[in-house]
Amino acid sequence: MPDLKINDAMHHVDVPPEMPLLWVLRDVIGMTGTKFGCGIAQCGACTVHLDGEPVRSCVLPVGSIGTRAVTTIEAIGATPAGRAIQKAWLDIEVVQCGYCQSGQIMSAAALVQQVRAPTDRDIDAAMSGNICRCGTYVRIRAAIKQAAQHVADQPQASSASIATR
Ligand code: FES
Ligand code: FES
Fold first, then answer.
1. What pTM did the predictor assign?
2. CATH of 3-71 given 3.40.50.1220, 3.30.70.1350, 3.10.20.30, 3.40.50.150
3. Cβ(103) – ligand 1 distance below 6 Å
4. For residue 159, pLDDT beyond 80
């Protein structure tokens, strides 16, 4: 197994290559912010970023990652989009029980990173794989729009790293 780049740090893990990344994160490395929900790529609770793209870590064999960078909920606040999402989540008090929310935040941060002014349709498309049993969808949508506006209002962040759709 090659070392894994997770949250800008290299990790040597001695595990079978077919082990899902989620197991490595939680049980081997001890990063428990990423949650197990369904284990079959249906709920989104386990969402992390792989080179900035949201992926379901419960079905991602760790041996398939190679040199790509993994970002988890523990480090998403270090990015402009992730920071804006976290602030909006708090401002709007999105969270109810919280179980789905690290996955929601990871999908939302990727969307805000990639789309300057997401429409309702953009949000529905990006977030459709993240299930919330508490039904926080309306607040999630509002928080994504607030975060996108915040990022767009930051000249340095927006010009450096945000797409111009
Ligand atoms: S735990 Fe991975 S999608 Fe549900
Ligand atoms: S906040 Fe409870 S499942 Fe989403």
1. 0.93
2. 3.10.20.30
3. no
4. no
